[in-house]
Amino acid sequence: MENRGQKRMEVVVEPPADKRACNSQDFRPSTSGGSSVQAQANGGTTTSGDADMDTSSSASPSSRSDGEHDREDSDYGSCDSDDADPRRRVLQRYQRGRSSGDQLKLKSLMSRLSEENDPSLQLTGLTELCEVLSFCTEGSLSSVMADALSRVLVKLAKHESNADIMLLAIRAITYLCDVYPRSVAFLVKHETVPALCQRLLTIEYLDVAEQCLQALEKISRDQPVACLNAGAIMAVLSFIDFFSTSIQRVAVSTVVNICRKLPSEPPSPVMDAVPVLCNLLQYEDRQLVESVAICLTKIADQVSQSPAMLDQLCSHGLIHQSTHLLNLNSRTTLSQPVYNGVIGLLRKLSSGSTLAFRTLYELNIGYRLKEIISTYDMSHPVSSTQPINACSNQVHEVLKLVIELLPASPVEGNSLALEKESFLVDQPNLLQQFRADMLPVMIQVLKSGASVYVSYGCLLAIHKLTCLSKSDDLVELLNSANISSVLAGILSRKDHHAVVVALQIAEALLEKYRDAFLNSFIKEGVFFAIASLLNSDRRQQNPASGFIQGAVTKEIVKCLCQSFEGSISSSSQTCKIGNDSVYILATRIKESFFGPEVFDSQKGLTDVLQNLKNLSVELNDLMTVPIDARVLHGQKFISIWNQIMERLNGRESVSTFEFTESGVVNALANYLSNGLYQRKLSKGDPECYSLPLVGNRFEVFTRLLWSDAEATSSVLIQKLQDSLSSLENYPIVLSQFLKQRNCFAAVPNGRCTSYPVLRVRFVKAEGETCLRDYSQDFVTVDPLCYLGAVDQYIWPKVHLEPLNSVEAKDQAIECQSSQLQSTSISCQGESSSHMEIDSPNASQLQGSQEEEDQYHLTDSSSSSEGEDLRPRLLFRLEGLELDPSLTVYQAILLNKLKSENETTNDSKLSGHHTITYERAPQLAESHENLFPLKSMDNDEYHPFLSYLFAHRLGLRHKGTSSPAYAVLFLLKSLESMNRFLFQLICHERINAFGEGRLESLDDLRVQVRPVPYAKFVSSKLTEKLEQQLRDSFAVSTCGLPPWFNDLMDSCPFLFSFEVKSKYFRLAAFGPQQVHHQPQHLSSSNGHGEGRSVTGSLPRKKFLACREKILESAAKMMELHGTQKVAIEVEYSEEVGTGLGPTLEFYTLVSRAFQNPDLAIWRSDRSSLAGKPMEDLGSLVPPSGLFPRPWSATSAAFPGVLQKFVLLGTVVAKALQDGRVLDIPFSKTFYKLILGQELSSFDIHFVDPELCKTLVELQALAHRRKVISESQSDAALAAKCDLSFRGTKIEDLCLDFSLPGYTDYVLAPQFANDMVNLDNLEEYVKAIVSATVCNGIRKQVEAFRSGFNKVFPIEHLKIFNEDELETLLCGERDLFNMNDVLDHIKFDHGYTSSSPAVENLLEILHEFDKEQQRAFLQFVTGCPRLPPGGLASLNPKLTIVRKHGSDSSETDLPSVMTCANYLKLPPYSSKEKMKEKLIYAITEGQGSFHLS
DSSP letter at 763? Predict the structure, then answer.
């Protein structure tokens, strides 16, 4: 065998040669036969080929997409010329002339190729033919010419005496397939495929064989059956190990093409290839393995009805190799669709093959499946073009396999089912192990708020396991996982199918293990749920509610009970569950297992529940005690609470059902808030005067909860989380099946929409005499307009009284209507800036319009600004009032969902709706003043109560979920207490010191640890919100359920940082920024090679100057800060542009803002101590950056404000573009960004020593106040003894100046006074005001005004301080060395086991934090990782071998920051590598040049 090396073109992909520069055109994916398979496997996404990719077909004209050139020209925008038509005509004339020339050339070449006696003439003819075919177009060829060429080329391909002629002839065949696809039929007619297969089976020349593979791959695309019949599969696979990886991909691609069109008869030629394909599954090349997996899946589909053929498949090790691919630590990482396909392959094999069934159990498949479910992110993003259905969910596929591995009761004559059952009977230990692996994780999935499909699958699997199990270990497993509580939650749902299966599980458990589960069913509320089902109206149990639209291929309406069947039957799509199934099952369980004594309301109560009920009654009775008796209140409450906690921590556990049913939650919420948590407060309400009392009760409650560190508070939080999961019934609305189409909406202002409209008839309410009839006909209504807009539209048409100044009124109505309507998606795609719409009908509205899509999310922070736009009409649907602050879509949806599933679709919104209207009550206020803080005389608890009552808790949903409302309030209260823990405890200590309960100032020291923030996150609600955000149509059209916005506004702590980040980008920037997420929100499981930071926003380049970085930043923000464009930076006299230089620009700007010479931050001299002179340009206080106080009269003050305006704009623009900053703000400054009020205790997070002193002085002032009020002689004597740590206040020689800032005027009225006991309180207040209030107010306002130029800063309020820091500045922890291997890619000569790679990882581990930051900036352009850490870096950090000079010891590492690409020479030792790497990361900063 020899390698002639005479290919037409060598495509060698070398590692990038540039050192730190790249542009947006780099790394375009190559096209080849192999990559086409990858594209099909990944839904059309192509990936770049490896370095050894060598396919001559990739250079042919037809294999290159014309769109590539279009994309290259349109990266930064393009314009069309006015003379486009003349140019097109000239081009057409040129192409026609060229085609004529090509035809003449081809005819001439045909005659030369027919000269059989002159091989040299044939050789030159073939060379010229290949050249002509490479550049001609399809119009240059005709069917006659293609037929003639095919005949000649096939004949020459059999020219065994001359290998060069064979090679060029086969190459010409390849090009012919490319340029004229219809020629494939002629090639097959002239027996091309057998000839090529013969060349492969009698391989003599490697390059000829490679060209044969290229040609067969082209032919197999159009003629797979002909290739199959000619034996092409075995021909391309026989000597596959002799070829390079890229050619192996082409070979397997041919097999994939053939397998996609397998005939219906038994494919014996395909079965012969199974051993080779199974062996290829062991290879490391991902693209190759994925193609092989697709082949085997297609083969299994073809033979699925033949158990013998399936057994034959399994006999070649297919099960072993497939399960190995499912290993999460496998060297070959499959894409999501192929991974799901492998799981589906195992399911098909186990369904029809006893051998596969046995093998999977023997391989302990349960452990592998448990790993997949437990590590699989339940919020895993689904492609926006793919609906959420059975085919797109990995957990769904796993559950289908689990159900298949649990055979149902065998039907007579079903020998396969009998064999499976007998195997499990003979091997009980295997079933026991499978049960131990799967049961706990499936129950956990049920608790997590998974989709209805996944929940139903888990219930089916649990039911099967329960029926199959005969050992007592099942009882222990189910009790440890608290199956009773799970079943009680499922039975309270409105989904018919899930309830039926839950009842079947309960019945099976009671039949087998009645003694073990009867009491727990009572304790956890199962029997109460069954009683509730029996008491409900049987007519409401509609099985049709279980139908959920699911698009497999034909968008059929598929019943949930059929979603886990092995095959979809086209003949039966009806529900298998009867109308009375729930009632019949519940009745049977009641009569069989629960006697009359259990269902007696008193005897059915447990002792724990009865005791907690009594305590809740006592707590409610406490509300009748006069408010003046504060001490009695406190003592009695402490006694009751201690009894409640004694029960919660007692030996007998308190179930979630007992906790919620007892009324403790409502009683506690009512007592702590003094009944205000259910009230809408407005200015002047008498209840407002009790707010100081509310603050005092929370202070006492805080001391009780944190008296034993965080143990008690953690117990209560977990109980409340369990209660919320059990009680909440917030719906998920799947509207992805609404097809986008052009419609016309007459109401409210007659406009075109790109989505379906609603047909509504507006009817005057009965008894309404002040309004006229509108119309008896149905009208089209824009579903995304607000009811307020409908009000403004209909009011003039139904109002009977004449209007004054009709024209002015019409203009106002038109303006208001258009404003409200502007929140909908524009069908014209017009551009508009951000607009706040203030009206009673949309008092929570805050819109952010994109250039292509305008989007809206409600925000309760916006309100009416003086203009009285109260609703004049009240709308009702089916007798229920519709909320005017919702869209028509949301209002109707909320009305419909009150009697529907937790997961639903938009089919219920189709059809016609009748809405009645009547005059609205005139007493309705335009907006709510939820917390009139200025009415408080005492502001001791002002910041805490302001935060607690700042947002309403979705009062409109209180009626639909009343029990959950009290739980939500308590959770919000606990989160507020946890957030203000230091303040509340300090305040309590100060009061205790003032009242004499504490003697020493040292007793004021507070050492408490807040509860970790993660404990407040509800996994169930987070998963529900994730599912809602996956629904692309609902997101893009604002078709979201109202709870979506209400909970995020009032209780954002319930959601994880990841889902809040998605919500934030959706609310602030529109749906485009959700589908095209920034680097830190991209899925770490994705395999894309580009970093899509800004979605489809246009890009602008900006030339920056390193020497004047702040001036450059100011100019950039002036030009592009307010535009919705992504900015890319390049530096003067440097060649680099793109992501790397842009990230470094933001890093440089961040450091420039830390310059002490700017005088905008509090300076802590200790932060500069010990630093060399050249490093003094960056201020990094231990507590972070916080604005320094400035007097408004200072001459430098205007310049300071300008700096803060610029800083705010830069921060907002970095967020919008998805960039990471490197500026360490203090926690207190983040609170100011979030709009929170500060108190003296917040100084602790700015200057701890100053705060400590102020707290002690505040305590002395409070004691002096208490003593003065007592008026006793002993008190006067104690007043004389008041001192600060043994020194009288007067002897401290303090004057009214701000420590550290003597130029700041602290208090003009005390300018010449010294501090004494009488004015000590004023002195402390003045310092606090200067430090965190008046002294920095203008700077903070300037920052916020600069921020608001880009987008409203109100969108950040859903984050806490730590989350906001992560959002702005990325992760604090740079490298987790345990996970670093999982998130780094090795290529072009390196693998994870290469010595150079191992040395690099050890060096990174040895680096200190500053060296790690320098390494990150060298590689990525930014010294910090994005949120999510190394896993979120996109593209992945890639390490490749650098091919340089002969002596690699002298070469330095080089990088390409746009691709996070490190080119590392193979140094001889770790020491040499460390030396060169440190030199590169320290000396290689500050410029972007070619290496």
Answer: E
Alpha-carbon distances of 623 from 533, 618, 936, rounded to whole Å: 35, 9, 21
Pairing of strands 845-849, 779-781: unpaired
Stated as kind and residue range, the H or E segment containing 1128 is strand 1126-1131
Angle at 658 between CA 652 and CA 664, to 5 degrees: 110
Q: Are 1080 and 1218 in contact (CB under 8 A)?
A: yes
Name the burial class of residue 1403, with classes exposed (0-12), middle (13-18) and buried (19+) by CB atoms within 10 angstroms of its CB.
middle
Q: How far is CA 870 from the centre of its chain?
A: 38
Is the separation of the CB atoms in 1315 and 1294 below 8 Å? yes
Q: Are 1179 and 1156 in contact (CB under 8 A)?
A: yes
CB 733 within 8 A of CB 1035: no
DSSP, res 1489: -
φ, ψ of residue 1441 in degrees (nearest 5): -80, 130
**Overall average pLDDT of the 461-467 stretch:** 92
Phi-psi region of 140 (alpha: psi -120 to 50; beta: other; left: phi over 0): alpha
pLDDT, tens only, 242-255: 898 889 999 999 99
Which sequence positions are flagged as catalytic?
Answer: 1458
Tokens of 1133: 């006299």
State the Cα–Cα distance between residues 1186 and 1161, nearest whole angstrom. 5
Q: How far apart are the first and last CA of the chain?
A: 41
Q: pLDDT (tens digit, 9 = 90+) per residue, 687-733?
A: 667 788 888 899 999 999 988 777 888 999 999 999 998 888 787 77
pLDDT interval class at 407 (50, 70, 90): confident
Measured torsion, CA atoms of residues 803, 807, 810, 811, in degrees rounded to the nearest 10: -140
Confidence of residue 71 (pLDDT cuts 50, 70, 90): very low
Note whether 1188 and 1161 are within 8 A (CB).
yes
Give the separation between CA 588 and CA 593, rounded to whole angstroms.
Answer: 8
With vertex at residue 1239, the alpha carbon angle to CA 1234 and CA 1243, rounded to the nearest 5 degrees, is: 90
Rounded Cα–Cα distance for residues 217 and 257 (Å): 8
What residue has token string 């005092």? 696
Q: Band the pLDDT of 830: cuts 50, 70, 90.
A: very low
Distance CA 80, CA 85 (A): 11
What's the predicted TM-score (pTM) here? 0.78
Asked if residue 9 lies in contact with residue 20, where contact means CB atoms within 8 angstroms, the answer is no
Instruction: Residue 410: name the closest of 391, 429, 395, 423 by CA.
Output: 423
8 A C-beta contact, residue 555 and residue 545: no
Copy the structure tokens of residue 669: 């919420």
> Would the pLDDT of 262 be above 70?
yes
How far is residue 354's CA from residue 421's CA, in Å, rounded to a whole number? Answer: 10
* 394-404 helix and 365-375 helix, angle to the nearest 10 degrees: 150
Beta bridge partners of residue 1129, listed in sequence order:
1102, 1138
Kindly report the backbone phi and psi dihedral angles of residue 364, in degrees, each rounded to the nearest multiple of 5, phi listed first: 55, 55
| pLDDT band, residue 294 (cuts 50/70/90) | very high
* Residues above pLDDT 70, as percent of the chain: 74
Answer yes or no: are the C-beta atoms of 1422 and 1416 closer than 8 Å: yes
Other C-beta atoms within 10 Å of 1168: how many?
A: 16
Residue 746 has what pLDDT?
83
CB-count burial class (<10 Å; 0-12, 13-18, 19+) for 671: buried
When computed from its CA atoms, the radius of gyration of the chain, rounded to whole angstroms, is: 37
Residue 913 is classified by DSSP as E
State the Cα–Cα distance between residues 950 and 784, nearest whole angstrom: 28
Cα distance between residue 287 and residue 296, in whole Å: 15
- Report residue 573's pLDDT band, with 50, 70 and 90 as the boundaries: low
Closest CA to 818 of 839, 798, 844: 839
Pairing of strands 880-881, 873-877: antiparallel
Distance CA 323, CA 346 (A): 8
